Amino acid sequence: MDILRSAIMIDDANKSLRSLFKEQYDEMAQKPRMVLRNIMEELHTDNPLKALTVALQRVIDTQGEYSQTAQVHSVWFCAAAADLCKEK
Fold it and tell me: Which of 13, 16, 50, 66 has the most beta carbons within 10 angstroms of its beta carbon?
């Protein structure tokens, strides 16, 4: 998957969840953002996308690639990564 397509998908996840969970989004996205920040600290990086890659791999490793749980977690991590990128 090319970089532009990935960036669009990450941004779309953010916009979709913000639209679905209007008032609750910030509260619901707090935990995925915290997980990504912890991974960034673990990796000694300030790049949310590197942390996202690690988080997604961990989700696949623990939940399986095609499980519904993995898909839900993946969307939330993508949305949280978009938030962290926008914070910069």
Answer: 13
DSSP designation for 73? H
Amino acid residing at 20:
L
Rounded Cα distance, 65 and 59, in Å:
8
pTM (whole model) above 0.85: yes
CA angle 73, 19, 67 (to 5 degrees): 20
Q: What whole-number distance in Å separates Cα of residue 29 and Cα of residue 63?
A: 20
**Residue 1 binned pLDDT confidence (cut-offs 50, 70, 90):** low
Residues in the chain: 88
Q: Within 13 Å and on the Cβ side, how many CA atoms surround 6?
A: 9
Contacts (Cβ under 8 Å, ≥6 apart) of 14: 78, 79, 82, 83
